[in-house]
Specification:
single chain, 6 helices, Rossmann fold, 4 domains, alpha+beta, Thrombin, subunit H, disordered N terminus
Length: about 475
């Protein structure tokens, strides 16, 4: 076989061309993390098992397929990956050295490089004769362990070293003695591989996207940032950790991790498309805290009771005085309001002024100088949750006394014995009955002496009689 070598510049160009647009976006700090999976290899001490052949290429493909199904990563296609490794002269030896992985990842242009190595692949079978039934039993056990390292090509650090450990056991009954090394059904080989792959995929997600609390609602239900296809299932139990100060190696400056304190435990109750809902089993949980598979006893205090439902009901207001449309003539005007809330009343104002509760539980404000005419009353109330209520009313204020205008007159009744005379009352000539001499007239009061009436009769010869009467 002839191998074609390319210059470093050409190799970089090829790597950039093979990147998907989404992977390029991830490199710029947005979108999903991009990663490449090196073909899985056998450890040098692992030998093929008779009747249980394992193809690492098939195992690698199953792993890549499950990674893609999580919808959390941009995964470099297998064919492109193998082509690049061949150009880098790594296709035969595989990639087991993190330094090589960093180099390959940077050339390819991905955020993370995954390397897998089969360290255990064993098949154990036991054949036994059952004399009573004249049957033979064959018990088998397949065990697959894959060691995986995740390298961050941007920092040249091994982010995580994980292990997938899957075991499949079965028992068969035969009418004749079976061979100890009879071939294993493909379905069993597939089951043990998929079990191991599922473990590895879950650990990749945990390493790159740690399971975190994204919200805790008012009912105490916990939301986490992982949904369908991300290795999470209903009934899974996780411990919740608060992260503290970073721990840094003083010699190398390497970040070794951070202090973690276990603060709670949750159990997944519903897995949705992009996130999951969990119940708080013990302790407490807050947004941003990291979750890991539960380990050890849940040595926390019981979870706090859920908070009461949110208060959405505003206070109620009733204006007692002045009544709507009431006419008021004296000051100060006492405004009285009755305000209630189903939980906790925070503040009450009347026409913008803070009102205080009196001994009867009513709120009062005095208006010292109301305007003549219509005056508005506005009562506002807030509860502790910020709900606001408003009530309005009007009253009419009038403190100006009425102005009376009248012409005062006096009614005078009487008679004269000379029907030819001229008669005046308080200087006003009046007419009388020429037959009887009777008269009844209304005349103005004397402005100089309103209580006096002066009656004067004068005959044609100038004789004059004057009568003065006082009003009774």
């Amino acid at each position: 076989m002839t191998r074609v070598r390319m210059s470093a510049l050409a190799l970089v160009a090829l790597g950039a061309a093979l990147l998907t647009p989404a992977a390029a976006l991830a490199q710029e700090g947005g979108g999903k993390a991009s990663l490449a999976v090196a073909p899985f290899t056998f450890h040098r001490n692992v030998r093929a098992q008779p009747g249980a052949e394992l193809e690492t290429a098939t195992l690698t493909q199953k792993f890549v397929t499950e990674l893609v199904k999580t919808n959390k990563f941009d995964v470099l296609e297998r064919a492109r990956m193998e082509q690049l490794l061949e150009e880098m002269d790594l296709s035969n030896t595989g990639i087991t050295d993190p330094a090589r992985a960093v180099r390959a990842g940077k050339v390819i242009g991905v955020d993370y490089f995954l390397m897998g190595e089969v360290s255990v692949w064993t098949l154990t079978t036991t054949v036994k004769h059952v004399p009573i039934a004249n049957r033979w039993t064959r018990e088998g056990e397949l065990r697959l362990i894959v060691d995986m390292r995740i390298v961050d090509t941007r920092t040249s650090k091994v982010v995580s070293a994980e292990k997938g450990d899957a075991t499949l056991r079965w028992r068969e009954m035969h009418t004749s003695q079976p061979g100890r090394h009879a071939p294993i059904e493909p379905a069993k080989l597939d089951d043990v591989q998929r079990d191991c792959v599922a473990q590895l995929v879950r650990k990749v997600i945990d390493a790159v996207y740690p399971l975190r609390v994204i919200a805790v609602n008012s009912s105490g239900e916990v939301m986490v940032n992982r949904g369908e296809g991300a290795g999470i299932s209903e009934g899974d139990v996780y411990d919740v950790f608060s992260e503290g100060q970073e721990l840094i190696d003083p010699d190398t400056g390497e970040v070794l991790g951070s202090e973690e304190t276990k603060v709670g435990r949750i159990q997944i109750g519903q897995v949705l498309a992009k996130f999951s809902k969990a119940a708080l089993v013990a302790g407490a949980a807050q947004k941003g805290q990291v979750c890991r598979p539960a380990n050890g006893p849940a040595s926390f205090a019981p979870p706090p009771p859920p908070p009461p439902p949110a208060d959405r009901q505003a206070p109620t207001i009733r204006i007692l005085a002045p009544k709507q449309g009431q006419q008021v003539s004296s000051t100060p005007v006492n405004v009285v309001a009755e305000v209630h809330d189903d939980r906790q009343l925070e503040r009450v104002t009347i026409n913008g002024a803070d009102a205080r509760r009196d001994e009867r539980g009513l709120f009062r404000v005095r208006i010292s100088q109301p305007s003549d005419g219509r005056n508005g009353i506005e009562v506002r109330a807030w509860d502790a949750a910020g709900n606001e209520a408003v009530a309005r009313s009007e009253f009419t204020f009038d403190a100006t006394p009425p102005v009376v205008q009248a012409d005062a007159t006096i009614v005078v009744d009487g008679s004269v014995d000379d029907v030819d005379c001229t008669l005046t009352v308080n200087g006003v000539q009046v007419e009388f009955d020429k037959q009887t001499g009777r008269y009844s007239v209304r005349v103005p009061a004397d402005p100089q002496d309103p209580g006096r009436v002066v009656i004067v009769a004068t005959d044609p010869y100038g004789n004059q009689t004057q009568e003065v009467r006082r009003l009774r």
